[in-house]
Structures
1.
Amino acid sequence: QVQLVESGGGLVQPGGSLRLSCTASGSIFSIDVMGWYRQAPGKQRELVAAITSSGVTNYVDSVKGRFTISRDNAKNTVYLQMNSLKPDDTAVYYCNAAVGHLRSWGQGTQVVVSS
């Protein structure tokens, strides 16, 4: 399993931007898929964005065109750049790593989008 440490959450106004970071304990080269999930109060956890080891990305429809997932292998870090934030983006965001059948989760970082 991989240890994941998240950072970058905070309070932003609607229309603002935020970048989340997820740093792994080791090289992310061998990680099949890394992704960002989020869970808002009263809602189920949902996959927001994911990136494979080959660089293929996937996004939930509600964030397409606004969010970008990327990775920096040299820093063992995956990022989620969030632009044009909306109040509905308010949630705890969790980093996830998949290696075969193993799954690792970060501790979560709170994102609040509010005026």
2.
Amino acid sequence: QVQLVESGGGLVQTGGSLRLSCAASGRTFRPYAMGWFRQVPGKEREFVAAISWSGGRRDYADSVKGRFTISRDNTKNTGYLQMNSLKPEDTAVYYCAAGGHFATVPGEYDYWGQGTQVTVSS
């Protein structure tokens, strides 16, 4: 029904920046919130950031607050995650998600992208 595709991941040195994009397509029939999550082997999927349809409500994990910025451009059906001052502990597969309500837990989202790898070298 809804497809999400992440892009923008890659290798970066400590202190560098990356900008992830999440393009949405398909049969969207209502406004949707978006979130970003990340996952490393052996750990649960971790909340990173979320944004409401209008952009009026945003939230960040404490570990990324002040370094990451979530945004969206609804005219392009695209969400973004700007990541600055990257640290090795940010290394993970990053996933975007879409759902009917603003949320910070994975189970509340209906659609997921395939993920994009972010690797931060020390």
3.
Amino acid sequence: QVQLVESGGGLVQPGGSLRLSCAASGSIFGLNAMGWYRQFPGKQRELVAVIGSGGGTNYADSVKGRFTISRDNAKNTVYLQMNSLKPEDTAVYYCNLKVVFTQYDYWGQGTQVTVSS
């Protein structure tokens, strides 16, 4: 059983910054990748950024140069630093953990990020 608890969402003005955090707890075994996804109203959930256990990262083209994903393995926590936020970044952001070489795939509850003046 794995639980992901997110924090850091909220309302921010265009050009502003937010940092999302996601702490994982429970029975976490093996190598895992953690990441952030977002979902716009009426759209499919899409990748924002992922980070492997060794620190390798991948980003959606739309956020490259603005967002940075990082993880603290000692704390089982993943972060998403979001800079230069745009109104089109407004979405529900979800934390994800995948256990490598297994079917296990865990999701957080989601946190709303709203970018508006």
